[in-house]
């Protein structure tokens, strides 16, 4: 098993008990600005191939800008968390299960109480952005607000085409070894994500109707040059959540926190400042 090259000395682990939807899980997590005990919490939800290590320094920089504590964690199958067994396929509703079961169980394990959750922001990227939206819809009274960066709310051809191309790169270039820096079991991470997105059954996946339950402040961000999704994604969010604010970034692809970090941080900071 290849270990990530990025230092992980600051990571801790939470043990989640087995439930009807999953077996026992060991979740890698890390706090930022933990000494600021009275500050609101920002929970960061990574992309489909992400992990704590892959976020690099962006969550820390944003938390310092916002004056918040930060919680980052690697979802099951990613980073140093419990890997996905190689014969297990993620179900079509895997993002709903993450919002419904895994994140609340992690918050419980870390003793994050109801009052802290009411002041909490969820900030997600890509698949993590979709999970942030689903969590906001499922827990409208236990959240201060949400930021969804390049989220998916339905499946577009451009997404499937790019994900198929990524699979070819993974199997024919050094992409696998590069991703191995960020995951203890890189095949667990890659094929869990890739297989479900390329599953024909997943073409019918959509969470647009669930979004009408979102009551708290919502910021949705998309880059004009995103090769995994179009502006139709966040436009669909605005149709279902009229109070949502949209930010559309020029010269920005699928990862605004890497492609346009200053513009992204400015947008998030300004939006959250208006809610305080």
Automatic annotation (TrEMBL):
MF annotations from Gene Ontology: 2-succinyl-6-hydroxy-2,4-cyclohexadiene-1-carboxylate synthase activity
The keyword Lyase is annotated on this UniProt entry: yes
Organism: Paraburkholderia sediminicola
Record EC number: 4.2.99.20
Protein name as it appears in the record: 2-succinyl-6-hydroxy-2, 4-cyclohexadiene-1-carboxylate synthase
Gene3D superfamilies named among the record's database cross-references: alpha/beta hydrolase (3.40.50.1820)
Record-annotated AB hydrolase-1 domain positions: 43-267
Keywords: Lyase
Entries under SUPFAM superfamilies matching the protein: alpha/beta-Hydrolases
GO CC terms of this entry: membrane
Keyword Nucleotidyltransferase part of the UniProt annotation: no
């Amino acid at each position: 098993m290849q270990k990530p090259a990025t230092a992980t000395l600051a990571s801790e682990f939470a043990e989640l008990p087995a439930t009807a939807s999953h077996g026992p899980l060991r979740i890698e997590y890390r706090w930022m600005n933990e000494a600021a005990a009275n500050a609101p919490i920002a929970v960061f939800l990574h992309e489909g191939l992400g992990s704590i290590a892959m976020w690099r320094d962006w969550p820390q920089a944003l938390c310092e800008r916002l004056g918040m504590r930060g919680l980052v964690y690697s979802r099951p199958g990613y980073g140093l968390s419990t890997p996905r067994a190689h014969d297990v396929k993620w179900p079509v509703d895997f993002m709903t299960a993450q919002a419904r079961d895994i994140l609340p169980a992690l918050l419980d394990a870390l003793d994050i109480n109801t009052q802290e959750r009411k002041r909490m922001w969820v900030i997600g990227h890509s698949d993590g952005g979709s999970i942030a939206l689903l969590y906001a819809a499922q827990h409208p009274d236990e959240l201060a607000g949400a930021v969804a960066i390049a989220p998916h709310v339905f499946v577009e051809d451009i997404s499937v085409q790019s994900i198929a191309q990524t699979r070819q790169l993974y199997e024919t270039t050094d992409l696998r070894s590069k991703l191995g820096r960020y995951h203890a079991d890189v095949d667990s991470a890659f094929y869990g994500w890739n297989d479900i997105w390329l599953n024909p059954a997943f073409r019918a996946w959509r969470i647009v109707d669930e979004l009408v339950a979102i009551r708290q402040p919502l910021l949705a961000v998309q880059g004009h040059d995103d090769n995994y999704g179009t502006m139709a994604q966040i436009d669909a969010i605005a149709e279902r959540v009229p109070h949502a604010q949209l930010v559309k970034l020029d010269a920005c692809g699928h990862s605004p926190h890497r492609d346009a970090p200053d513009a992204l941080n400015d947008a998030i900071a300004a939006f959250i400042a208006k809610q305080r």
